Amino acid sequence: MSITGHKDYESMKPYIEIANDTKRYELDKWNGKEWKIGITELINRFDEAKLKQAYELIRTLNEMAVSLCLSMWLEKDTQLCC
Question: Please, what are the averages of pLDDT over each run of 10 residues along the chain (82 residues)?
């Protein structure tokens, strides 16, 4: 820590977290998860209004997926019971 001029680990923590985020980002590229990087890059360009819209859209899609999954399961279960 004397090399960087920080007096303790706590003062270095924010910089270490940035390095860890960068490492995760680069590892995702290496591991073929370009889709995650693309989503992250798009979200980083959004203003607050677009972020709220994206959140609502994702929440709605999630609710629709859960509802569809549940209805398919119930339909399958009903066929087995009858």
Answer: 75 83 79 78 90 91 84 65 42
The string of DSSP codes covering 13-76 is HHHHHHHHHHHHHHHHHHTT-HHHHHHHHHHHH--HHHHHHHHHHHHHHHHHHHHHHHHHHHHH
**The model's pTM:** 0.44
Q: Are 38 and 28 spatial neighbours (Cβ–Cβ below 8 Å)?
A: no
Residue in the block written with tokens 């001029």: 5
According to the model, what pLDDT value does residue 1 have? 60
Identify the CA nearest to 51 among candidates 60, 43, 41. Answer: 43
| Cα 30 to Cα 17: distance, rounded to the nearest angstrom | 20
**Dihedral angle computed from the Cα positions of residues 17, 21, 26 and 32, in that order, rounded to the nearest 10 degrees:** 140
